[in-house]
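Bumping with the actual sequence this time:
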Amino acid sequence: MNKPSRRGETSNRFIIGILLIIAGLILIVKKSTVLPEPLDHFIDDIIFSWQMLLVVIGIIVLAGSDNKTPGIIMIAVGGFFMIPELFTDFFRSFNFFWPALFIVIGIVLLLNSKRLVKRLDFSESSKADYIDYVNIFSGAERQLITDNFKGGKITSIFGGGEVDLTRSSLAPGDNAIEITCIFGGTTIIVPDSWNIIINVTPILGGFSDSRKLRGDVIKDNTRSLTIKGTVIFGGGEVKSYK
């Protein structure tokens, strides 16, 4: 069974370290020097703002995760809210936030759909072995029954869902579910005997394996399920009924 790559985690640490050094240097300059008012305003209202925090989180996600969608969303939302600060006298965009957010989410769904169709062979015989669940401003409980489960995608934006796989069996080899949770969450229910690998990048959120594993459960080491992706301002877990 292949071990999850640590390259994304190392990349995240490197970028966070660089950004912290830059932020520290900017603060030193600000505290030790009398800056012109426009520059002082730029540092306070732009560099150290919640909008810039979203942009920075988006950059970290883009650099350290295979799933680029959450990073693009965070950068787009942070940049959008930054426009009034940059062009206060010329453009007021808050009235356009919700329409723009809907457009961004729509583009994300189109891109995700295209990527999934490219990656998976949805023939009639294999279509039921994959999942592609989307929860936006809503929630759902779903159950899948298959003897050859191969993974898929779960997207939760301002919503959540539960997927019950207890009556399914894993396909031989390595299988993966790619999750994207933004202000949302996902619960995946699996049998105790499944080999689960958690490789999720949490940002102000979390994702865990909450199963109470017993020593008498026999696992098939030739099959595994990797849960990967990004959780931002959200959460999720893998659990079992026992």
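The tokens above came from a reply further down the thread. The radius of gyration is 21 Å.
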